[in-house]
## 1
Amino acid sequence: MRARPGGEGARKYFFAPPLSNEAFLFYCGLRVFMNLDGGSFVGSKLYVGNLNYRVGDADLERTFAAYGTVKSAQVVMDRATGRSRGFGFVEMGSDQEAQAAIAGLNGKEVDGRNLMVNEARPPERRGGTGGDAKRGGGRRY
């Protein structure tokens, strides 16, 4: 029987320096979308839905500028057609400005359509559909 490194039966563990919850999640590659202290948290990135298809990035930025500093505004475009998909994302300068924009614009009519404005959430993981039939994906007839 061979001896284990570090002595018989010894186990070595790596202990990281103490980190805040947010720093730990960042270190592990996870994005933080909630307040870990239990309070309510509104991120500064907003989802904007039900946009008129003629609305562009500049129009979206002008609409949200009344509620604070707009760091970025992007209307999502269809890759195949180059046309708007009817939604976008706006990043505000602070959480308070984001809350003000949600309160002021959610349900408001802009270019004939009632906007839907709320906090952007991370995309949900999709199931294992598609892929190689040898690995369990693909079509099954």
## 2
Amino acid sequence: MRRFTTIFMILGFLLWPHVPAARAEESVPSAIQAALTWLHGQQRADGSFGGTSVTSDAVYTLALLGEDSDGPAWTGSDGVSALDALEALAPGYVTRGAGEAGKVLRAAALAGANPRAFGGTDLIALIEAAYDPATGRYHPDYLYRHTLAVEGLLRAGRPVPVKAYEALVDAQLPDGNWFWSFDGAKGDVDTTGRVLTLLAGIARQPQAASFANAAAYLDAAQLTSAGWGVNPAPDPNPANANSTALAVGGLRAAGYNPNAPRFQQGGVGGLQALLGFQEPSGAFVYIQQPGREEVRLMATLEALMALAQRRPLYLPLVLRGGEARSDPHASRGEARSDPRASRSEHPQMRFDTTGRI
């Protein structure tokens, strides 16, 4: 029986790019499950998935999908859970800046940890201390890191100044996109998708005109493969899973169907293109070219974040110890203390030069 099940799964993966655009959404749950199965095999004995950045993304993604990163299913052979591994890694990482702290905060908060004492650090205080009321920024230069700081606070149920949102809206370039830094003159797909996800899907800001301009940019930037590269067409860059995931996730968050006719190329929609990066193993490759498939772990996590947009972005949070905390939009209360005793980086591709971390 397992043999036949595996054969059917493989056939399904091979046929995904040929599934009609209208039915692509039906493939999402099985794609998520296959990716999670593969992800289990990437967890290390110490509970981590590598360095702080990738482990943080893994814990965050698992929380978005309703997985318990502090439970036995996500505990390494050394007896350390993914959440505990992140807590052990965090201290030397979060002090680098508000963006790094925000990346860890969003994961810790969604996973139900105490952000006021995570790895011995008050992540909320760290980020709020970085805010510049004159500019509305949590990072003086890097817009991408600013978005992580804002999201971290929102996930933890903290209020975010209106000016912090205005800083993002004001940074939108005339053709509807955003650049990874605040002083950019030419935007990119990744940052545009990321800002859409934050403003529309998480912060739920009423910026319909801004979102429409961003959607038009992504429409124009779509490649003939129906995927997206970092830069819009006709720049010589192939479609990759990370950029495609960020574009698809941003469109979904803003209420746009990435498989609608306007986001189709040759009858293939954006969501179909994203699913097309998935291998029979369940992993997503970075670029579908020999020798350019890695880094699969980062591509898979990015794809899962985008696919999770079909679910409520704010999940009920269960703190360690079993007490539930409500949606951050409904309550501004702080997380309770961990009832138990409190306890280099994964290779980055282009992150260090785009303000991403």
